[in-house]
Design a protein that fits this description.
- The chain is of the alpha+beta class.
- The chain has 2 domains: 22-117, GMP Synthetase, Chain A, domain 3; 135-170, no CATH class.
- Helix content is 49%, strand content 13%.
- The protein contains 9 helices and 3 strands; from the N terminus they run H-H-H-H-H-E-E-H-H-E-H-H.
- The chain has helices spanning 3-10, 16-30, 36-40, 42-46, 48-51, 87-92, 94-105, 135-144, 151-170, and strands spanning 54-60, 76-82, 110-117.
- A 3-stranded mixed beta sheet has the order 1-2-3.
- Helix 8 (135-144) crosses helix 9.
- The longest helix has 20 residues, at 151-170.
- The chain is elongated, with a radius of gyration of 25 Å.
């Protein structure tokens, strides 16, 4: 029995990241991306400006039979999906991208880039927090929760109630 399954049986919750690793890692490994951190941390690795227009899609390793000195690992090619308008700038930034990727991985894994123009997979934009509730909704929710003795619970239910009251008025 796997560790996460055993933890669920005992009632201990496993972190979501621990459960997803078993699903995501094989998919990335099939594309030569042995480390999920290269994809997950891409904006931190290359910077927000480059990450906005380029995404890693594959690491292409040279054939195993290629001649090289014993103990010398042959560097790979990192394939990036590039927004078409950014291709020329990405070529100019190639040395910086390679250096940052290798620094992140901790060894000289990549020595060149290959570009594939196409649409980038966009991350879902962060949800905007709802606007604060109106004073009238806060007052009404506070009056409804006034009989609750526990102060933290009363405040939490007042905030929730005020959002619900205003949400009803906004038609949500």
């Amino acid at each position: 029995m796997t560790k996460p399954a055993r933890d669920r049986i005992r009632g201990a919750a496993a972190p979501l990241g621990a459960l997803l690793g078993g699903v995501v890692e094989p998919t990335l490994a099939a594309r030569g991306l042995g480390s999920a951190s290269l994809v997950a941390d891409w904006p931190e690795i290359v910077g927000a400006e480059i990450a906005r227009y380029a995404q890693p899609i594959e690491i292409r390793w040279p054939p195993r039979g290629a001649r090289r000195p014993v103990g010398d690992a042959a560097p790979a090619t990192l394939v990036l999906r590039i927004d078409g308008a950014f291709a020329l700038e990405a070529q100019h930034a190639a040395a910086v991208i390679v250096a940052r990727v290798n620094a992140h991985l901790g060894w000289r894994c990549v020595d060149r880039l290959a570009f594939r123009q196409g649409p980038l997979i966009e991350a879902k934009p962060a949800r905007r927090p709802p606007p604060p509730p109106s004073a009238a909704a806060e007052a009404r929710a506070g009056a409804l929760a006034a009989s609750i003795e526990d102060e933290e619970l009363r405040r939490a239910l007042t905030r929730l109630g005020a959002q619900a009251i205003d949400g009803d008025r906004r038609g949500r």
